[in-house]
Amino acid sequence: MDKEEILKKSREENEDQDGEYEESVLAQAYKISICVGSVLCVLLIIATRYWSDIAEVAFGGLLLLFTVTGSSDLTMFVKLKEKKYLFHAFPDIFLVGIMVYIWMTSSH
């Protein structure tokens, strides 16, 4: 092997590592964003105790949070065919269904 072949092979290996690192960072960012969203929803719910005008905002935030986490876990189940993701998605989807039912039956 000459110097050019070694450099070419090294560049190809580094490209693969960059993709893996990016996927790892993306997964970590997703987990952090879910935690931040959860904290925000809890703060909104606490705030509804003092300002009843924002109760629907808190409700909508929770609905959005459960929809995002449920759809993410369903996507992981479909792509990876691992049942654990289906079990993770089920409570979120169930809660979304209950919340939509409550919203539809409540008087606006």
Protein architecture, described:
This protein has 108 residues and is mainly alpha-helical. It has one domain. Helices cover 88% and strands 0% of the residues. The chain contains 3 helices and no strands. Helix 1 packs antiparallel against helix 2 (55-80) and helix 2 packs antiparallel against helix 3 (83-105). It is elongated and about 75 Å long.
Write a concise synopsis of the structure shown:
The protein is an all-alpha fold and 108 residues long. The chain has helices at residues 3-48, 55-80, 83-105.
Structural class: mainly alpha
The CA-CA distance between the termini, in Å, is 75 Å
Q: Which bin fits the share of residues in helices?
A: over 70%
**Number of H/I helices:** 3
DSSP strand count: 0
Please give the domain count. 1
Order of helices and strands: HHH
- How large, in whole angstroms, is the Cα Rg? 21 Å
Keywords summarizing the entry:
mainly alpha; elongated; single chain; 108 residues
Write the layout of secondary structure elements.
Elements: H1 3-48, H2 55-80, H3 83-105
Helix pairs in contact: 1-2, 2-3
